[in-house]
Amino acid sequence: MIDYHLHVIAHGDRPMTVENILEYLEVAKSRGLRQMGITEHDRYLDEIDLAAFQEAREMYQDVELRLGIEIDFVPGAEERMDRDGSALPYDYVIGSVHRVTGEEIDHPEHREIYEKMETYELYEAYYKNVREAALSGRFEILGHPDLIKIFRTFPDRDITPMLEETADAIAESGVVVDVNAAGLRKPIGEVYPSRQFLEMFHRRGVPIVLSSDAHAADQVAMGYEKSMKLVHDVGYREVVTFKDRERGTLSLRPE
Ligand SMILES: [Zn+2]
Ligand SMILES: [Zn+2]
Fold first, then answer.
1. I want to staple 180 with a disulfide (CB 3.0 to 4.6 A). Which of 27, 55, 144, 225 is the partner?
2. How many angstroms does the Cα of residue 196 sit away from the middle of ligand 1?
3. Closest ligand to 211 CA?
């Protein structure tokens, strides 16, 4: 299996040294991963040590290492996104929506946006950004596509049409969806995307990758029993892989 979205530097928690990368790879190996992709937040771009990454990749043969980046999608910040998205020899680029009207939606201590905006309107603004991110053509992968559910704040109106419209845009864009187990460690307690949203993707033939969004070595492939079962139940039999921006596939389970 693969873990295609995780952070070694995380939020400045540790430097990207060969030793730190190897610690992640050891966990990846012990949990049966074939490939692991490091995707730091783009604001830590300057701290990515490409030489250390390349050394670890050559030293460690048991799990193939990939390099990506997680770009914080903000409409109007095209120049920054283009610069960060082409700064290094990435295998793939993830685009993630973490903000609505410039404010973070997933920060446990800064949830002001949830007070300021009516919940349905907040969801509309969030999913509009998600559609724009997908259709921007900047990214191979769309990160955690329903992050807005993180704190269990739900509108009282049905959001099914909003999700359908978003799934249509994602299918049209050709972007791959990140099935991200980090939600299991958050108040929502479920994988991103929800089963309902994932079913919409499957019906439209949208491919997926799997990830833990680990911010520490012991979180690599964490929650995979649940996310593997979810994607299999929904009907997925393979995940997408990337090398030098070229797409491949890997079977979910040898059958
Ligand atoms: Zn993210
Ligand atoms: Zn992330």
1. 144
2. 21
3. 2
